[in-house]
Amino acid sequence: MTQHSQEEKPAEKEGLHPRNKHRGRYDFPALIRSFPALAPFVAPNAYADDSIDFANPEAVKALNKALLKHFYTIEHWDIPAGYLAPPIPGRADYIHYAADLLAEVNEGVVPTGKRVRVLDVGVGANCIYPIIGHREYGWRFIGSDVDPVAVRMAKQIAASNPGLGGVVEVRLQPARDDIFSGVVKANEFFDLTMCNPPFHGSQAEADAANRRKGQNLGTAEARPLPNFGGQSNELWYQGGEATFVWRMAEESALQRANCLWFTTLISKKETLPGLYKTLQKLGAVDVRTIGMNQGQKISRIVAWTFLTPEQQQQWRQRRWLAGTAGATPPAPTPAE
User: Fold this and answer.
1) For 55-79, what is the mean pLDDT?
2) Is residue 237 situated within a structural domain?
3) Average pLDDT in the 194-199 region?
4) What is the average pLDDT across 23-43?
5) Cα dist. 132→60, 127, 166 in Å?
6) CA distance 199 to 157
7) Whole-prediction pTM value?
8) Which one has a higher pLDDT value, 151 or 204?
9) Which end of the chain is more exposed for a tag (fewer CB within 10 A), N or C?
10) Contact 118, 142 (CB under 8 A)
11) Environment class of 319 (CB within 10 Å of its CB; exposed 0-12, middle 13-18, buried 19+)
């Protein structure tokens, strides 16, 4: 396993990836022109700048609808009350950094189009990663989730927006504790997997974090709900983030020949040493840690592959250059 790649690289200047369309301040007049329903939520803040009340879930949802319509031509997007309305700039960052990983295998050029297949573990009702990944790079997505409501809503979003129906498939994960098992079919190949794992260890821990968030926003008494929402499966997992990504790593080893890069977001720096140790034990050939900063939030992507550089080039030749996306890539070297 490559040791130096475990060192966390600093995020780009201004926090967001250079290709991220959301690097500047929100242009609220332009967003309102694209989505007039945003207007009632926009008002000057304490610094006399246009903004919204980020403690108001309806305001956050309206902002997301405007961003998705303005930047990604998504006309029909909604989520059920209480479900996660994610901050879109940060989600776009993950997509672009993941694209850079694929570009390294492709002579610095991001591979685009339906030949690139991505698995989004925990797609959620919002379906954000497939939306951005397809609109930016034309990738084909499989999204999985343990929540039938989220699966139904993500399917509806894909079906109701032109261009998404044939390239975004959503599958129900039948077992809450499984990651790839039960979702990935036999002899199915992915160029990339993505995941924003639940990082709390219990409902009580998630509730305490939401109260702290409300206090930081100065609205804990008036609005106890988290400003970005979230169901239990989106916010917590028994054992927390560390247990979830440990299981992901263990299951990834069983899919080592079926995926080029496995990736996941990591919110807690304390999760990293255990994950590195597990991946080394499993025989990962290369492990990368990419730092991301969005405002006051610090996160990171951890990515790993079981394929050697030579096998990665064979993967590229068979899946991206030969025009045979269903071709069987070379099997990686077995773990010692």
Assistant:
1) 96
2) yes
3) 87
4) 97
5) 18, 9, 15
6) 26
7) 0.86
8) 151
9) C
10) yes
11) buried
pLDDT of amino acid 171:
98
Q: What CATH number corresponds to the domain at position 117? A: 3.40.50.150
Q: Give the closest residue to 264 by CA, choosing from 107, 140, 101, 105.
A: 101
Instruction: Compute the distance between CA of residue 323 and CA of residue 326 in angstroms, rounded to an integer.
Output: 9
Q: How far apart are CA 189 and CA 14, in angstroms?
A: 35
Structure tokens at 272: 């990293």
Strand order in the sheet with 297-305: 168-172, 140-145, 117-121, 190-195, 259-266, 297-305, 286-294
Annotate 158-181 with b (16+ C-beta within 10 A) or e (fewer): beebeebeebbbbbebeeeeebbe
Query: Which letter does DSSP use for residue 321 in this model?
Result: I
**Count of domains forming the chain:** 1
Q: Which two tokens stand for residue 32?
A: 């309102």
Q: Is residue 209 part of a domain?
A: yes
Residue 69 lies in a domain: no
* Of 97, 95, 99, nearest in space to 110 by CA: 99
Structure tokens at 303: 């990515």
CB count, 10 Å around CB of 208? 12
Sign of the alpha-carbon torsion through 141, 146, 151, 154: negative
- Strands (DSSP E) contained in 14-74 are 43-44, 50-51
C-alpha–C-alpha distance, residues 96 and 110, integer Å: 9
Domain membership of residue 99 (yes or no) is: yes
Q: In this structure, what are the phi and psi dihedrals at residue 303, rounded to the nearest 5 degrees?
A: -130, 145
199 pLDDT band, cuts 50/70/90, is low
Strand pairing class (140-145; 190-195): unpaired
* pLDDT at residue 5 in the model: 54
Q: Which residues contact 98 (CB under 8 A, 6 or more apart)?
A: 118, 192, 194, 261, 263, 301, 303
